[in-house]
Structure formats: structure tokens, C-alpha cells
Specification:
Layout: E1 4-12, H1 20-39, E2 46-50, H2 52-61, H3 63-71, E3 76-78, H4 93-111, E4 117-118, H5 130-135, E5 140-144, H6 145-149, E6 161-165, E7 168-175, H7 177-182, H8 188-196, E8 208-213, H9 223-229, H10 232-242, E9 246-249, H11 251-257, H12 272-278, H13 282-287, H14 294-297, H15 299-313, H16 319-328, H17 345-362, E10 367-370, E11 379-383, E12 387-392, E13 398-404, E14 409-410, E15 465-469, H18 475-480, E16 495-496, E17 503-510, E18 513-524, E19 527-536, E20 541-550, E21 558-560, E22 563-564, E23 568-580, E24 585-608, E25 611-628, E26 631-639
Parallel strand pairs: 1-2, 1-8, 1-9, 2-3, 4-5, 5-7
Antiparallel strand pairs: 6-7, 10-11, 11-12, 12-13, 13-14, 15-20, 16-17, 17-18, 18-19, 19-26, 20-25, 21-22, 21-23, 23-24, 24-25, 24-26
Helix pairs in contact: 2-3, 15-17, 16-17
Length: about 650
């Protein structure tokens, strides 16, 4: 009788420092009940991967659950990975090795196992990781069947293959997409037939391979009721232990008992859905984009990633520095698919918290000039004991980062509104529960029919950006980004004009007339002084508008010149004070004369697993002054 050798694995992860209520909810609804159900079936062998920081959290906060995991380790194989769940191909080799070895050590100490398998974060494959995996004692990793199908390997995907790079060899197991989409969403009879169709060959070398998110067993939409209230998971374990045609094995057991199916070389790739999400255009979506395209789609993602790379190059022998660096490398903030990712300000706040912690340990010098984001142009880092300001000369000499050192908070943690494919989709109803016939989140494309229009930005939402406009600029056209631009200074490259690197000049145009804009910065402790000077031959009456985009963690507690924050505000003042009761800080803009100010809330629209999220990303501020021909505009920004 032919048997189906089932290689079953679950991968569990939460973004570093996720909210406690989310973590405890995931433990209560998915992770813990999964293991409690598994305990009832000692003959069910499986493999599991938890990101290292999540294991630490469980050990610290739920000793009963952690002890259960330890007690079940005789039937479980623990997989390694990057401790803080980085995309391994996106971080330097030294950090890669350190993060894997850190999780290896945790598993050895707590579960009495030396891991030989590794969960490849988001299954992002690149040959560059092979040597480092081998150095860490890893013998096999998990990829998707799509990796092999994309390279023309379709005959047998029910085992492992070898691949190599620089004379280092590693085995790869391809996950079955049909199993990934049916477990736990199809009924048990369907699963039984599906597994039967994957029975072993005569030599017994075939395996049914599934390794997927632990969250789908309890916290994906409707899955708690499916798996536990309705008993799907228990029925599945019964099927796999009572049915004599199914044999569960760990990946280690299968690897040690079976030969490889051959040698393959994989393209740089992730799973099929990721290829669609990372694609830069429709044509690339058809063939699948590479994961690193997220750095091109989202400049804010690229900035966080490249800031972490910059800090990795400055690595010092300091345990706190290295821990902060590794936490900043967590993958969730760098991309966007069905879950919030880069669209979630809290994830970006966490990344910046550890980036700023590294900067504080380094004690950055006054001015540093470096190409941070790898675009071929140098950025200027101005540092004081209280603030760190980064100016991007090749984008309007705008400010792209403003860090409060003591709070480890970036006031310019903004996100530009961009067009997304799902914006144009029609509203889908939430799928109703129908026994086990529940759709996966990959099938749930929810788009709202909200009366709020989706706005797209024409330029990156940095700060200290210079607009030349006219009467078309009002608070509505500012909010919708539909006012007229008569100058060429937004996004244009500026050149440094002094040795200290704090003054920049741009030769541009106002209408078709030549114009020159000079921008100067001076940082002193908690105060940033800004001067803007325009010289032109234009004789028209124009409006100069200086734009800032400020991010706060909680907007309900903000006071604007002692007034509650409203959706849209127009002020005529010489001083603008924004008091943040959460940070216990006041951000103050002071002007030489009274200016007109627009303040509006800037929302983005993103798809999530449960629908569409309208996320308040930041406050957009516009400081305006009328001028003809020439202009001088000065202000200071202080935080205290």
C-alpha cells in the first residue's frame, strides 16, 4: 500500500515590538491552541518555526505555553532563521550569520535541538545566502514550488533538491501551493483525497510538503471558529494519525532517509503572490517581480533599509548597538502585501526607534556627508545633542528625517500616497462562514466604497519643500494635491555652496523665467534655523508655500496653539505650536512676521486582511507668503 509522507510545518512571527494586545491575542487564538491540540496527538510529527524575539516574548509572558512547547519537542523539529525575522538576502553577511546563530543558540538552550533546517523569511531566495547558511550548520531551507516552476522544474516537486553557490551545497524543499491554499480552508474529505493523490513513488521518496503561517490556524479571518470551535484542526490531526495511508515526518527525518531529486538553480524570487505585490508595473506583475523592488516602489521603505545598512557598516563592538541594529532589520516594515507593512506607522516607528538608538550610541558628529539611500547623491546629516536632521539636496534640499534623540522618535516618519492596484477594484462582501469553505486571505480582495476619494501625491512627502503657486492653492487643493505649481524646485537637485554643508542652491524656473533659490540650515541643540531666498525676474504676483509633513504617534492628544486638532485648519500667526501629550514635546515654528498656515490630516488607503484601512499618516502643513520677483523667508523650528 502506498503511503503519503506528510511534511507539515508552521511558521509563526509577529513584527518586532508589536502591540501587546496583538501578541497576546495571537497566542490565545492561534499559537497556544494549536499546540494544545497537537498535544492530543503524540504520533503527529511536524516542524515549526518561531521568530526568535517571539519565542523570547512567549517565554517571558506565557510560561505555561512555553513549557508546553518544550514538552512537545520530542515530536517537533524546530527550524532556525534570522532572530528578528529579516529578509536574509537584504542584510549584510555578518548580520545574517549573527542573527541565525542567535536563534540557533536559543533553540539549543531551550529545546535541546541543534537546528539543521531554516525558515527563509517570506521565502525570498537569493544564491548569496547559501554560504552563510552552511556556516551556521543549516542543511535545508524552505522555498515555494513557484521557485522551481519559474525555473522550468515541474516534473517532481514532492521532495528536496540540492543547489550550490561558491562550492557550498544546500537542500531546498518546495512548498506545495495546492496544499497551502487548501489547509485549513477545505473540508477534511477534500484534504484526504488531496493527500492520497500525493502518495509516494515505489521507492518511497515522495513527500507532501506544506509549511505555512501559524496565524492561519486561528487569527486569519474566521479561522479560529473553523479550527477550534468547529474542530477542523483536531479532525486533521486525527486523519493524519489514524489513517494508515498517511505518515507524518519531520523535515529532518525525511532529509536523512531520502536522496535528493537532483540539482537545480533557482532564480532570485519569492512566492507567487509576493511577485505580484512587488511588481513595479502590470507587465512585471505577470512574470513576477523580485522582493527588492519594494525599495523602488516605496522610497520610505528604501530609506529605512538603507539607514540600517549604513549603521551596519559602522558596526561597533557594543551589545546594545548590535541588538538595536538587528531589530531595525525586521522585514515587516519594508513591504506591503495583504497585511499593512510599510503602510503602518507603528512599524516604521519601531524601525526608527532602533535606528535612532544606534545613532545615540555612535554619538554622531556635527555634520556627516554620505549617500545613504544609494541613489548616487549625498545626504547631509546635521547632528546635535538633541536632534538629528538629514537633508536630501537632490530632492529640493528637503528634510527627510528629523529625530528626537531622547524619545527615539522620527517626526518625519511619513508615507507618500501612491496608486495601488487594489484601489480600482470593486467592493467585495466579506465571505460568510460555510462550514470549512472559507477563503484564504489571498482570495479576499476587499476595497471600500467609501465616500472619501483616494488621493495620490505628485511628489514625495518630505519637509521644507518649496512651492511656487497662486490663488489655486487653498486648503482643499493642498489636501488633494491638485494646486498649480509654477516653480521647478520640488524634487530638483540642489548643490552645496559652503564648506560646512549647510547651504544649498538650485537654479530653476518660475513659469519660463529663470530663478534661483538658496536654502540654508543651522542646527543648534533643539533648534533648526531655516532661511529661504529666491531671486527671479518674474513680475507676477505669486505665492510662496513652504511645506512640512509631521508624524505623531497619537493624533487625538495633539493641541495646535492650544486648540484641539481638526481635520482642516487655517491660521494666521507668527508662531505655530504643536503640543504632543504622548511625547510630552512641543514642536514650535516661529516666523519673522505673520504667515498664513494650512494644516490638514494626510491619510493613506491600504489593503489589509480584513478590508481596507484608512490610516492617518501625518499632518501636512503649508506656510505661505505672497511675493513678486524676490523673496526672503526665514523661520526656526524648535522641539522642547
Amino acid at each position: 500500500m502506498k503511503k503519503t509522507k506528510l511534511l507539515f510545518g508552521v511558521h509563526s512571527h509577529q513584527p518586532v515590538d508589536n502591540f501587546d494586545e496583538v501578541l497576546f491575542g495571537a497566542i490565545a487564538k492561534a499559537y497556544k491552541p494549536f499546540f494544545q491540540t497537537l498535544k492530543l496527538f503524540p504520533d503527529f510529527k511536524c516542524s515549526v518555526h518561531f521568530s526568535g524575539w517571539l519565542l523570547e516574548f512567549i517565554k517571558k509572558n506565557d510560561n505555561e505555553f512555553f513549557l508546553l512547547m518544550q514538552n512537545l519537542s520530542n515530536q517537533i523539529e524546530f527550524f532556525s532563521g534570522g532572530f528578528y525575522e529579516p529578509i536574509l538576502a537584504s542584510i549584510p553577511s555578518s548580520d545574517r550569520v549573527a542573527q541565525i546563530k542567535k536563534l540557533n543558540l536559543f533553540i539549543e538552550k531551550n529545546f535541546n535541538q541543534t537546528p539543521t533546517g531554516l525558515w527563509l523569511t517570506e521565502r525570498v531566495w537569493d544564491d548569496s545566502v547559501i554560504s552563510d547558511l552552511c556556516e551556521c550548520g543549516i542543511k535545508y531551507v524552505i522555498v515555494d514550488d513557484y521557485h522551481l516552476i519559474a525555473n522550468g522544474t515541474t516534473q517532481n516537486l514532492q521532495g528536496y533538491y540540492f543547489t550550490e553557490n561558491n562550492a557550498h551545497k544546500i537542500a531546498i524543499f518546495p512548498i506545495s501551493k495546492p496544499l497551502r491554499y487548501s489547509i485549513p480552508f477545505k473540508d477534511i474529505d477534500f484534504i484526504q483525497k488531496q493527500l492520497s493523490s500525493m502518495a509516494t513513488t515505489k521507492d518511497g521518496s515522495n513527500g507532501a510538503i506544506i509549511f505555512d503561517d501559524g496565524e492561519k490556524f486561528g487569527i486569519w479571518p474566521q479561522t479560529y471558529e473553523l479550527c477550534y470551535t468547529n474542530g477542523w484542526l483536531k479532525s486533521f490531526f486525527e486523519l493524519c494519525t489514524i489513517n494508515t495511508t498517511i505518515e507524518t515526518q519531520t523535515y529532518r527525518e525525511f532529509f536523512e532517509a531520502n536522496k535528493a531529486l537532483g540539482l537545480v538553480y533557482l532564480p532570485t524570487l519569492s512566492y507567487e503572490e509576493m511577485g505580484e505585490w512587488s511588481a513595479l508595473d502590470e507587465e512585471e506583475s505577470l512574470r513576477g517581480g523580485i522582493w527588492k523592488n519594494f525599495f523602488l516602489k516605496y522610497p520610505q521603505s528604501n530609506w529605512i533599509h538603507k539607514r540600517a545598512l549604513e549603521l551596519s557598516r559602522k558596526q561597533i563592538d557594543d551589545e546594545n548597538y548590535l541588538e538595536s541594529l538587528y531589530k531595525a532589520q525586521c522585514n515587516d516594515v519594508l513591504w506591503h502585501g495583504v497585511f499593512g507593512g510599510i503602510y503602518l506607522p507603528s512599524l516604521r516607528d519601531t524601525a526608527y526607534r532602533y535606528i535612532i538608538e544606534c545613532e545615540n550610541i555612535l554619538k554622531s558628529k556635527d555634520i556627516e556627508i554620505v549617500d545613504i539611500d544609494f541613489d548616487g547623491y549625498e545626504e547631509y546629516k546635521l547632528s546635535s545633542s538633541e536632534l538629528l536632521v538629514i537633508v536630501k539636496p537632490n530632492y529640493g534640499a528637503g528634510v527627510v528625517e528629523l529625530d528626537l534623540r531622547d524619545k527615539k522618535f522620527n517626526l518625519l516618519n511619513t508615507l507618500t500616497r501612491r496608486a495601488e492596484k487594489y484601489h480600482s477594484l470593486a467592493q467585495s462582501e466579506h465571505p460568510k462562514e460555510d462550514g470549512s469553505q472559507i477563503k484564504t486571505i489571498h482570495d479576499n480582495l476587499f476595497v471600500t466604497q467609501d465616500d472619501r476619494e483616494i488621493y495620490i501625491d505628485r511628489y514625495q512627502k518630505y519637509s521644507n519643500l518649496d512651492h511656487i503657486s497662486d490663488g489655486s492653492l487653498n486648503i482643499e487643493s493642498f489636501k488633494t494635491n491638485r494646486f498649480l505649481q509654477h516653480g521647478t524646485f520640488i524634487g530638483s537637485p540642489y548643490e552645496s555652496i559652503d564648506e560646512e554643508g549647510s547651504a544649498f542652491k538650485c537654479k530653476g524656473k518660475i513659469f519660463e523665467t529663470k530663478a534661483e533659490l538658496v536654502k540654508r540650515y543651522k542646527l543648534d541643540k533643539n533648534t533648526l534655523l531655516c532661511d529661504v531666498e529666491i531671486k527671479s525676474n518674474s513680475e507676477q504676483n505669486l505665492l510662496y508655500a513652504n511645506e512640512w509633513n509631521l508624524h505623531f504617534a497619537i493624533y487625538d492628544v495633539l493641541k495646535i496653539n492650544s486648540l484641539p486638532l481638526e481635520d482642516d485648519m487655517t491660521l494666521h500667526v507668527k508662531t505655530l505650536s504643536i503640543f504632543d501629550a504622548y511625547l510630552k514635546k512641543t514642536v514650535k515654528f516661529s516666523f519673522e512676521e505673520e504667515v498664513k498656515i494650512f494644516i490638514c490630516k494626510n491619510h493613506t488607503v491600504s489593503q489589509s486582511e480584513s478590508g481596507v484601512d484608512y490610516t492617518l499618516q501625518h499632518l501636512s502643513l503649508m506656510f505661505m507668503k505672497n511675493f513678486t520677483k524676490d523673496l526672503k523667508f526665514s523661520f526656526c523650528l524648535s522641539v522642547g
